Amino acid sequence: MDSEKGLPLHRNLDRVPRNVRPVQKAGKTFVLLASLLTLLYCYAEFASLSYGHHHQTITVPLHAQETLVKCRALNTRPGASTNERSQSDRFQPGTNPIVIRNASIWTGLDNGLDVLQADLFLDKGLIKSVGEIDLTILAKDRTKEITVIDAHGAWLTPGIVDVHSHIAVDAAPALSGASDANSMKGLTLPWLRSVDGLNTHDDSYAHSIAGGVTTSLILPGSADAIGGQAFTIKLRSTQERSSSSLLVEPPFGLNGSDVDLEVPPRWRHMKHACARSYSGTRMDTVWSYREAYNRARQVKNSQDEYCSKALAGDWTGLGSFPENFQWEALVDVLRGKVKVHTHCYEAVDFDAFVRLSNEFQFPVAAFHHAHEAYLVSDVLKKAYEHPPAVAMFAAFSRYKREAYRHSEFAPRLLHDDGIKVIMKSDHPAIQSRYLLHEAQQAHYYGLPENVALASVISTAAEVLGLDHRLGYIKEDVVLWDSHPLALGATPLQVIIDGIPQISSPHASIKPASLQSSPTTPDFEKEAADAIKYEGLPPLEPSRTVTDLVIFYNVSSVWTREAGTVQAAFGVQEGEPKGVVVVDNGRIVCANVLEAACASYMLSGSAQVDLQGGSLAPALVAAGSAIGLQDIAGEPSTTDGTVYDAMKSIPSVVGGDSSIIKAIDGLQYGSRDALIAHHSGVTTAITAPTSDGLLGGLSAHFSLGSAHRLQQGAVINDVASVHVKIRHVGEPSVSTQIAALRRLLLEPQGGERGEWLKQVTKGEIPLVVDVKSADIIATLLVLKRDVEAASGTPIKMTLFRAAEAHLLAKEIAEANVGVIVTPPRSFPYTWEGRRILLGPPVTEETVVSVLTSHNVTVGIGPQGVEEEEPMAGWAVRNLKWDAAWVSIGSHGEISKAQALAMASTNIETLLGVQVNPIDGDIVATSGGDLLSFEGKVVAIVSPRRGLVDIL
Ligand SMILES: *[C@@H]1O[C@H](CO)[C@@H](O)[C@H](O)[C@H]1NC(C)=O
Ligand SMILES: *[C@@H]1O[C@H](CO)[C@@H](O)[C@H](O)[C@H]1NC(C)=O
Ligand SMILES: *[C@@H]1O[C@H](CO)[C@@H](O)[C@H](O)[C@H]1NC(C)=O
Ligand SMILES: *[C@@H]1O[C@H](CO)[C@@H](O)[C@H](O)[C@H]1NC(C)=O
A Gene Ontology molecular-function term (predicted)? Predict the structure, then answer.
């Protein structure tokens, strides 16, 4: 049918138009009118028709019926189909029904407070019933086998939903052909769609599922003001193996098929990014929004005008419905049919975007990242229609100026202000496998348990407009080895669309102590200070004591003993607690019996009730840039990068005989440093930042000092010599090895030569930043060659070492130590892709394999993505990274060993000797350093001769 051509029609103009007007609201009139028009339209196809008293000839186009349906659906808000489902649209035929017996089910209902002890029956990709399930009845009229999983009371939650992921558009391992997140073809690109770049071979799928993530919103990147449309996927692989088959409720018509306008549309999603995009200023970005939305508004207005005439029967000269293929998605934003996701950081950005939402009258689903949102919740509340949810990180911050005022208390502060809180990954920035850990941290810092769980499950599903099927006990579930908010919670099984995802799970239910939500510390004052000081609360100790301090009500004490960590005492729950007396920054008495220390407990001393807490050696940060930068992305706040030894170095620096010392560039008192100190990491060993082979000499320094000249601020001017071998194209790996070999076998004169001679004499470690097992093998050969030439064993430490488990035996035999960073592996790049996933996918991790081969293992902070150098923000979480190593090892690695991996082993591996009695000690109240119950309340510093009471 030629939709452009019309046919003349006579009709009664008095009656019809009056009925037409209320069409958007009055449902019944609407239906009546529709039938009437249908009737008229049918006649119109073959005849001129006249009736009524006033005759007039007008033209109705052939597409009138279609157009009127479209017009009536123009502003229909998306919604879920109300049809009861007997089978999921994603059901994979042949999938067996599953019964999960005896689970502790967090349902998401009742504001996240509802928990059931029950069985669960899954069939046809849906959860069919929850309660007491009688297998004999189920088995009766079924031919299919029913898989029965006995949960033994384990926790079960709906699958985790990540509202901010770049899985598949920023695929791992990172290769140029695997990065489809950012288009550079313009500032506003609402016509781009992440679905067009969904790589089905991303290694991340398996990782994220291993963390219980079942669904993710895949957003384009943030290089553009409007980066394009986002799509929700489930992470399991499908039989079709296609990108489209991953989608959950994609917008109708995505594949060009006809859209049924009689049913509500499905939600669409659009990515925006505030602040300075890849070109221009904030002013340019906001103008680009306004320009884009103005164009969309023009299209929308012409459509509305068209429809009001069409619906009024006034077809004269109307032509066809005005469409604009490029701007249609933004028109849908203006019609409230799109969830707007806006990556926005600072007050100025929220303010601008909220103004935009009101100027163009569209609601904002969520502000993402939103580091300063907690400071401006009133601004958020002014957004059009409803306040946006806020999707954020727990601790990842200060990577750029906009994230400088981040607060770990933001989730609870925003929740207190009535804003919906979501934790998100920005995978692969934070690996979505550990998205639950983001919620755990938010909980640790004060977000209530029910809200913390909802933040990555039900609230997330709701903000995606998918809570009719996700985020509750409806489709996908995860069975956990502990309470989901307990540190190290790991899935026992993950079921997506009724299909178990972990083929032979290496995980088992953890002890009872981890089966309830942790009792987290009181951070009321800290949270209030975050607001009071606009994200920059003072971090100096509240009091410094140089004489006696008595810590009482102490449950456990770990101490440094000859390069390792030992439990000094530990009392059980319910037993009387011990006491520790410190004088002049040194422990003078520690005993489970208070009386044993009575002679030290003079009056007038400071007394600290640890409430069943603990003392433990302070941790040591290795391998990050902490101490050399305030804001990673702002060169003017960092030490900068050393000259590449592979290129010519100015003679004024010393040319080929130069070597750079980190100590000369240290910046004390950065927020990362002070926060790390507050978190029990009191010293760091940091090497100069380098893009090339030779980094230089690392320094060991205090993170709590104000400047280099304070007592105890520097522990060792020089710790180790640092080099890095990487696949960078040019120079080749073999060239880098050749250079390293020459540096070690033929050390030249000058300062560089002197330090390299110390390496060959075994006096100072050579630390090699390396990932690939092949390069590690070559380094072991090189070590042998150097030792053969010098006749002396050299000290070699591997740093990062993603693939080290492949050579654990050889590394052990070569007497080489390893600082595994990140401790929980991820295949960021090709040269580090052969990693061990760890539980529940593999029994072992790189840490456990090396440990079982008696390799000296240290761990660095988990960090983010492929930051080189790794930024300092993650150092604060080193205690939890260490705890995870122990908790995940099924008893193979004790807490003392895990503490050593993050303290004494680091010192050994990086060539610093700390007399055990000189090492800092961390006092925690409520629980130990490696727990979600503990809070760091004091730092005992023998070197500085004092106790910092925080
Ligand atoms: C559920 O599991 C717990 C822990 O194993 C057990 O104590 C309890 O008896 C089980 N309940 C049922 C109904 O099987
Ligand atoms: C296009 O998508 C619709 C659902 O939106 C589906 O019913 C139809 O089969 C799809 N067509 C093709 C060719 O994939
Ligand atoms: C010791 O700590 C517990 C909390 O673990 C607290 O209830 C108790 O009052 C404390 N005891 C003393 C003597 O302060
Ligand atoms: C590691 O050391 C322990 C105790 O020293 C020893 O029993 C074990 O055989 C060693 N393991 C390996 C793989 O060398």
Answer: allantoinase activity
The answer to whether the CB of 555 is under 6 A from ligand 3 is no
Contacts of 727 (CB under 8 A, 6+ apart): 733, 772, 829, 830, 831
| Separation of CA 912 and ligand 3 centre (Å) | 38
Q: How far is the CA of 255 from the centre of ligand 2 (A)?
A: 6
Give residue for tokens 């489902």.
Answer: 85
Q: Are residues 704 and 662 in the same domain?
A: yes
Could you tell me where the beta strands, DSSP code E, fall in 524-637?
543-545, 549-561, 564-570, 578-583, 586-591, 606-617, 619-622
List the CATH number of the domain containing 932.
Answer: 2.30.40
List, chain by chain if needed, residues with CB within 6 Å of any ligand 2 atom: 252, 255, 257
Residues 869 and 948 in one domain: no
Q: Nearest CA to 545 among 947, 24, 90?
A: 947
At 20 the pLDDT is 30
Return d(Cα 487, Cα 117) in angstroms, integer.
Answer: 22
Ligand 4 lined by 854 (C-beta under 6 Å): yes
Q: Name every protein residue with a CB atom under 6 angstroms from any ligand 1 atom.
A: 102, 152-153
Query: Is 810's C-beta closer than 6 angstroms to any atom of ligand 4?
Result: no
Kindly state whether residues 765 and 900 are assigned to the same domain: yes
Same domain, 764 and 818: yes
- How far is 676 from 615, CA to CA, in rounded Å? 17
> Does residue 96 belong to any structural domain of this protein?
no
What confidence score (pLDDT) does residue 22 get? Answer: 29
Cα of 891 from ligand 4 centre, angstroms: 17
How many angstroms separate the CA atoms of 480 and 100, rounded? 13
Q: Which residues pair with 234 in a beta bridge?
A: 215
Q: What percent of the chain is modeled with pLDDT above 70? A: 93
CA distances (Å), origin 202, targets 165, 315, 833, 845: 13, 52, 12, 21
- Averaged pLDDT score across all residues of the chain: 92
CATH number of the domain to which 439 belongs: 3.20.20.140
Ligand nearest to the CA of 853: 4
Domain contains 286: no
Residue 612 beta carbon below 6 angstroms from any ligand 3 atom: yes
Give the three-class secondary structure for 303: helix
Q: Are residues 631 and 613 in the same domain?
A: no
- What's the pLDDT at 136? 82
| CA–CA distance, 576 with 553 (Å, rounded to integer) | 8
**Within the chain, which residues score under 50 in pLDDT?**
1-53
- CB of 853 closer than 6 angstroms to any ligand 4 atom: yes
Tokens of 737: 């090895």
Q: Give the per-residue SS3 of 609-657.
A: EEEEEEEEECEEEECECCCCECCCCCHHHECCCCCCCCCCCCHHHCHHH
Q: What is the count of structural domains for the chain?
A: 4
pLDDT of residue 59: 72
Last residue of a domain, one of 450, 471, 492: 471
Quick one: 570 and 668 in the same domain?
Answer: no
Q: Is residue 90 part of a domain?
A: no
Ligand 4 pocket test: pick from 850, 852, 854, 856 the residue with the most ligand atoms within 8 Å of its Cβ: 854
Whether residue 235 lies inside any domain: the answer is yes
My answer on whether 613 and 625 are in the same domain is: no
Tell which atom from ligand 3 comes closest to the C-alpha of 555.
Answer: 5
Q: Which of 878, 903, 896, 889 minimizes the C-alpha distance to 614?
A: 896
Domain boundary among 426, 447, 471: 471
Residue 923 CA, ligand 3 centroid: distance in Å: 15
Ligand nearest to the CA of 104: 1
Residue 150 bridge partners (DSSP): 101
Distances (CA, A) of 385 to 12, 360, 361, 377, 833: 40, 12, 8, 15, 46
- Which ligand 3 atom is nearest residue 609's CA? 14
Q: Which domain holds residue 879?
A: 619-918
If you measure from the C-alpha of residue 149 to the centroid of ligand 1, how many angstroms do you get, rounded to a whole number?
13
CB burial class (10 A; 0-12, 13-18, 19+) of residue 720? buried
